[in-house]
Design goal:
Elements: H1 6-24, E1 29-33, E2 39-42, E3 57-60, E4 84-85, E5 88-89, H2 90-126, H3 133-170, H4 174-177
Antiparallel strand pairs: 1-2, 1-3, 4-5
Helix pairs in contact: 2-3
């Protein structure tokens, strides 16, 4: 019977682990945007501040293990190819612009609803109309929230203009920026 030393076993196990572990150690990358609109990329979810974790995007995931080499896929036709503008694909730019415009639109609708309710309430008070406790509380809440919402609205609009400026620098088509 062959006598195998402990050192040889440890060496074989080490080499085995050395070749297998890197394949499973490919990290995911996470992208998140701070309140200034700056984009950050990290390889550990714990490095993202808690208030941004729910909006973090996985931009590179572990590839699935394949025992056989993949067959080369046909190259996409020029119409299927996506162009990069800066470090991002055109679809990313479209999605970002749409998300920002939607956020502005929703906040604008909320502000209009608040202003309309407050105007109706104040008009009714001048006519000595009686309001329910819920309406009074709603009015007081809107009165407190409205300045913050208007400031947030203005900030979002200026952020969008800055984002448009960056997109223009990177050559994003005008149709996407508008």
């Amino acid at each position: 019977m062959m006598n195998i030393s402990t050192n040889k076993i440890v060496c074989v196990v080490f080499i085995f682990c050395f070749f297998l572990l890197p394949a499973s150690a490919i990290a995911e990358l996470y992208e998140w945007r701070d309140e200034k609109g700056d984009i950050h990329v990290v390889d550990d979810m714990l490095l993202i501040p808690p208030q941004y974790r729910d909006k973090a995007k996985v931009i590179k995931a572990k590839p699935p293990y394949k025992a056989t080499p993949p067959h080369p896929s046909p190259l996409p036709t020029p119409s299927e190819q996506e162009e990069f503008y800066g470090n991002y694909l055109l679809t990313w730019w479209k999605a970002e612009f749409n998300a920002r415009k939607n956020e502005i639109s929703e906040l604008e609708k909320a502000i209009e609803e608040q202003k309309s309710f407050m105007a109706d309430y104040e008009r009714g008070r001048r006519l000595y109309k009686l309001y329910s406790k819920e309406d009074v509380e709603k009015y007081e809440t809107y009165k407190k929230e409205l300045p913050d919402n208007e400031n947030q609205f203005n900030k979002l609009k200026s952020d969008l203009e800055e984002f448009r400026r960056k997109a223009q620098i990177y050559g994003v088509p005008r149709a996407i920026r508008e």
